[in-house]
Amino acid sequence: MKTPWPLLLVALGACEPQSLPSREPRILSVTPLSQRSDESRVVIVQLDEDPLFLVDYGQPSARLVQLPQLKLGNSVSVPLDTYLGHGQYQGRVGPISYGDYGIQVSLGDGREASFAESTYVVKRAVSYSFNSIGARRVNESFDITLHVDVKDDLPFSGMAWLQLYKTGVEYGAPLSIGPLTEGENSWPLTVLDPGDDYVVRITDDQGNDATSQTFPVDPEN
């Protein structure tokens, strides 16, 4: 039995991808837009178009022909290997060097789109910890010992802020400290009022922070 020509053409056409769009794609959103340098993050990129599908009527499901690549700066390429529907593509950005990265998406057909609304910000991962702070006395200066652990091999000379809290409320103005070096750092502190539940918190411009344990400050003799 011969297959009629119209039916044969439909069958052949069903195994070919959709025709390629000619217009330039647009990046509608990128979520999230930041991470720490020592972590990996799942990123969702929304484009203003859906991917191309290859439909074979002899198979139970269609398959994607081309998936885009997320490009961060000139050196990082992330496959957007999961399609979530509604123009949303998902990929995972691994640990990368800290800094600000321009955002582009490259489609399999050679077209590219840039995201002008924002950059992808990778914050430097730094870990802080305090030595135990024992009982102190009002108006007597004492040293706070802080340990700094940098999560990369690049030179480090950081600035940070110490904030004293009393019963969970900020006490006094933050103290700018630095430059900090990796390893042990000490800074003097004086408390002017007695109390049983003081803590010290450190924060830096990369969003890293740590809090000491509670310590008492006794009245003067």
From TrEMBL:
Q: Which PROSITE patterns match?
A: PROKAR_LIPOPROTEIN
Q: This chain belongs to which protein, by name?
A: Lipoprotein
